[in-house]
Amino acid sequence: MPAPAAPNSDDQLSLFSPPPSSPKQPIIYPLHHSLSSPVSRIAISWSRGNTLRLSLLPQPSSNGGIEVNDGDDSSGGSVVEVKLSAGNGGIDDDAQWRRIVYGSVAPFAMFQSRKNSAFSFSKLPVGALSNVDWWEYVMEYSKEINSLLGTTKSMASSIVDDPRRILMVDEEPTSLKAAWELLEIFYADKQSQAWLPERLVDWLADYDSLFSETQFTVYSKLVDLQQRLLNMQTIEDDQKYWDCLSSALALGWLDIVVKLLRLHGSYQLDQLSRRETENGLVEAVVVLVSKMPRLRPELQAGRLGECYKNKTDFIKGWETWRARVTKLECSGYWVQCGHQKTREGLRKILQIMLGNTEHLSATTCHWVELYIAHFIYIRPFTVGFESLYSQAQKCIQLKPVSHPHSLMGLMVGILGENTEVVLAECSRAFGPWMVTHAIELLTAGNDQSEILLHEVRQNLGGVSIEELHRLVYAQVLASNQLTWQIAPVYLTSCRPGMGMLEILLYRQPVHLKQGLLKNLEICRLYELDTVSSNIMKIAGVHHWKHGRKGSGIFWLQQAQDEIRLNKIAQQLFDFVGKSVSEESFKQWEGLIELLGSDTRTAGGLEFLHKYRDFKRSLQQVVDGKATDAARQAVESLILLMKNPSTPQQFWLPLLHDSLKLLTWREGPLLDVAQTNLLLNKLQELSMARMRPDYVEADLPTQALSTVRLALATNLGRAILEEQ
Amino acid sequence: MAVNQFQTQQHQNLQIHRLPQSKFIDAVRWLPPFAAFDKFIVLSLFDPTSSSSTIELHSLDFPDSANPNPILSPLSTFSSPSLSRTSFLKTSQSLIAFSTFSGSLDFLSPNYSSPDEVSLDSLPSLQEKGFHVGPISCIDVLERDCVSVGEDGRVNLVGFGDGKASYRRVFDSDGLVSYSAVKWASPMEFATGGLGCSLQWWDQRRKPGEPALQFKGKWSQKTASGVVHSIDIHPSRKHTCMAGGSSGTVFGWDLRWPQQPIVLSGVGIGERPSNPISESEVWEVQFDCHLQSSNITSMSSSMMPVMMCSEEGILAVLEPGAEPFELLEEPCAINSFDINKQNYSDVICSLEWESLAILSRS
């Protein structure tokens, strides 16, 4: 696929990619390559995974003739691989991705089998199974996947030792984990649906830092303040301090608020006497903040607020608390407070606690923050998706964003109950792994999305959306040499997956033992006997061609491929005819052992086994052993000559080797019938010599007549003996 | 390499630690220590992004009993741009030998100055054309003597003299037989294994240049189709070989009764054990001397306990007449393991999914 190039400098090339948000302004990525001359043509093709391979070709030189590559780059062109890393969700390290990929296999397979058994028990669609067990399975799956994405730690946890340290980052949070937790909150964790607002508060506390990439956030404000705190004396004179206080409060980060308030100058011992009223007001606010009622079963140790498990208690608590806030707000002490900034700041805090919309809007930075603030101070008992969504719409109108973060898009999709949008956002921002595993949550209890995702679509080639995404993910897995063996788990959970699995297995290299056996093991697990035997045939032919005759025969024997065994037997016999002498037989010993005596799988090769036995007993005869050995040798000879699989080219050498037996001094070893059999064979051989394709054995010219004479002599002696 | 994540499980007397790596582990071995309390491991790693192999030496520390997570700290690394993937790795006191899929045999010599400072010196390697054709499937090292076998059917002895490695061809089957496993029994004897569950005994004094003894077991069709992947010979009972191979087969071969295999595990053998522990490839077997002292009475029995790992992700100890004892069950294959010969309670395994497992038994 040649495409016009847009070179803008000697060794740089631009890659245009229209971002979905602003289609008119392409983003330009510079691309480095080693060509020194201008690029005239580019061929683009897909490489492994989501990598593009660009073949850059320079202008052909004008002198026309065939150019010899003299080591100069300019004549050859260059191939560059471009990784389209849109879907990494903040995880840049390939190894880390593979760890997630490996870890998710077991939970996925476990969940599939539970789903299948639940389905077969109830004969109902999975969505209709709303029992407690089912949701436990869903949560277990979600938790296991979540645990792979990093350890959960709150960024806003406080340290006792250092009162001036307000933010603690234990681990860099990733968008991938944030997105998964968001899905978990809405789709999997049905047990805590009643505490949804509080779960969202926690979620934002953990991941607000992620939004800082694209916009200003409360988190980034606090990071700034953290820097200033270290070298500031009278903190309460700084407007930023008060801004941060109200912002943190708006998002419900109570511990940070209390910690910051305790840094207020009026707490210092030398000031305490002069600023008694001021300090009293600050402390009153601290008490109110730390007593704020929260509708949730429990709080992490060290977190502030008062928990209420059920709604009626919470409403009671909330009203009492609000009354206390109002009381403080109307208190006469404000007039006595001498410090203007403290007075204003504290009253703003009280306004936020009273749910003043303007203040909430002013103190939050983007719509998600505003949305969360609404949950905390204006509508703490919100339930039902409809109101959730309209509320979110209002917040977006109040705080529009030009470049929305992927998590924002995901959130809008979830709140709007728009499965397609959720999938599209997952796919765009986090790639096929996320989509494949997230679909399990989306369909867990939602009939509509289940129908949408499970419906077989003709325009997708007769698969459902769910299966399509699994196939895409399997493709990504199959493109990596370390993860290809995981692909079968996902392929086999799709209708056309078996066929694709066969293709995948056929594509794997067979020349290394480990790889071949892994391949065969997968065949065994999925009962693909035909594939397995075909792969063994491929391996057998490969080994045979590369001179590893033993391995070649072994694998063809495993595949019970008699046609090929017979074919290579011919080649092997030619080789034997030349190389088998008494001393080199030890080379063959191992192969003959391997062939065993099982004629069924050995093809024409069983001849070798008998040939070896014959040679061995003949050897003993030559060594001068007793007549018994000679009799045994004759038996072997007759067996060999009777057997149809003994190649014709061996008849004469066999007989010639046995001359000593035919002319045995102590008396004829062969009876009349046996001698006649051998004479017939000899006759057949003389006829065959007329044919053009006859291969002359490497024997003296008079060999045939010598053998005939010996046989005739033996026949005469045998007749005499029998009379 | 930083250790990012730990998973620690506690069985009754077994601690399992999983240490994820960011590269594929081709092979892992303990390196015999230089001082009493050192623990060193040698890893052969393959990086798929750069398609390069490295040999790394790490020290393994268990910081304290309260925090049992082991720490793997890299001491030295060896890599060379021409290095192909490792097919087999073996260590002795003074030598780290590793064979490659391209048919070369490389040697490193550990140079000890302190527990935190061990360097790897590269010794001359063997990569001549006549040495092996194609991959070397297995090697074994006894002090500074090395034996190598390959799919090409060659058996070579490698020794060091005049500062360079030289080899002597013991046997060349000209491709008619392929070997997949080898193990020294004594400086003059070794055993090999290959296709069709075959075993050969070689004795350089009695019968140089050909196998002194061939194992001819009467296998059923299914087992005869197997490949021997690993052989072990107990240092104090040289007449018994233990072999592991396809279809979960683990069997002993007593040279005194060469026709009669002692089957510990496997399918499709006349009188088969009630419940085969594995039906897939057994990648490695090693005699397990861990229970030797406590279980002295059963020592008189014909076969000692054997540890095996399999493609199905099972690490277990087998003993004739006893139920198999499973140490580890992984969702992915266990490609190799090694028992620490200085401290039999320590076992290290390489898992298919780029991870190491360290087991401490007590």
TrEMBL record, chain A:
The GO terms this record gives for MF are: structural constituent of nuclear pore
Q: How does it assemble?
A: Component of the nuclear pore complex (NPC).
Q: Which UniProt keywords apply?
A: Membrane, mRNA transport, Nuclear pore complex, Nucleus, Protein transport, Translocation, Transport
Recorded GO CC terms? nuclear membrane; nuclear pore outer ring
| The keyword Acyltransferase is annotated on this UniProt entry | no
- Matching InterPro entries: Nucleoporin_Nup85
Task: Specify the superkingdom.
Answer: Eukaryota
Span-the-membrane segments of this chain are none
GO terms under biological process: mRNA export from nucleus; positive regulation of DNA-templated transcription; protein import into nucleus
Q: Function, please?
A: Functions as a component of the nuclear pore complex (NPC).
The record's family statement is: Belongs to the nucleoporin Nup85 family.
The name on file for this protein is Nuclear pore complex protein Nup85
Region annotation Disordered: where it falls in the sequence: 1-22
Q: Does the keyword Iron apply?
A: no
Write out the annotated subcellular location: Nucleus, Nuclear pore complex
Automatic annotation (TrEMBL), chain B:
Which InterPro entries does the UniProt record give?
A: WD40/YVTN_repeat-like_dom_sf (IPR015943), WD40_repeat_dom_sf (IPR036322)
Q: Which Gene3D superfamilies match?
A: YVTN repeat-like/Quinoprotein amine dehydrogenase (2.130.10.10)
Compartments (UniProt record): Nucleus
Q: Name one GO cellular component term.
A: nuclear pore outer ring
Asked whether the UniProt record includes Protein transport among its keywords, one would answer: no
What keywords sit in the KW lines? Nucleus, Repeat, WD repeat
The record lists the lineage as:
Eukaryota, Viridiplantae, Streptophyta, Embryophyta, Tracheophyta
Name of this chain's protein = Nuclear pore complex protein NUP43
